[in-house]
């Protein structure tokens, strides 16, 4: 199996399909909440964009910090650290 990784960040061509699906979910009033186990800045921005589009929640953590995560709640426009 080969893994595709663009050295310049996330490939806009690859992101097109997921963002189209997010738009469909938004139109259907489907809330998307995401739990992200990574800290790559381009992936964080992508998850933030999805959360903003659908007014969902994004939970960020890393393998080294599973007990504490950052909750970004775009419905209430609040960000807080949870321990």
Quick rundown:
This protein is α+β, with helices and mostly antiparallel strands. It has helices at residues 12-27, 41-54, and strands spanning 34-37, 57-61, 69-73, 78-82. Strands 1-2-3-4 form a four-stranded mixed beta sheet, covered by helices on one side.
Q: H/E element string?
A: HEHEEE
Low-confidence stretches: none
Sheet with the most strands, sense and barrel status: 4 strands, mixed
**Which whole number gives the mean pLDDT?**
82
Overall outline? flat
**Rg over alpha carbons:** 14 Å
**Lateral strand order in the biggest sheet:** 1-2-3-4
SS content category? alpha+beta
Number of distinct helices: 2
Assess the beta-strand content as a share of residues: 15-25%
Number of domains: 1
Helicity, in percent?
25-40%
What is the first-to-last residue Cα distance?
A: 37 Å
- The beta-strand count equals 4
């Amino acid at each position: 199996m080969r893994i595709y990784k663009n050295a310049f960040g996330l490939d806009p061509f690859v992101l097109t399909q997921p963002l189209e699906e997010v738009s469909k979910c938004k139109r259907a009033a489907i809330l998307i909440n995401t739990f992200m186990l990574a800290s790559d800045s381009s992936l964080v921005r992508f998850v933030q964009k999805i959360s903003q589009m659908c007014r969902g929640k994004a939970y960020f953590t890393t393998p080294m910090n599973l007990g504490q995560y950052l909750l970004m709640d775009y419905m209430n426009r609040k960000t807080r650290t949870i321990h």
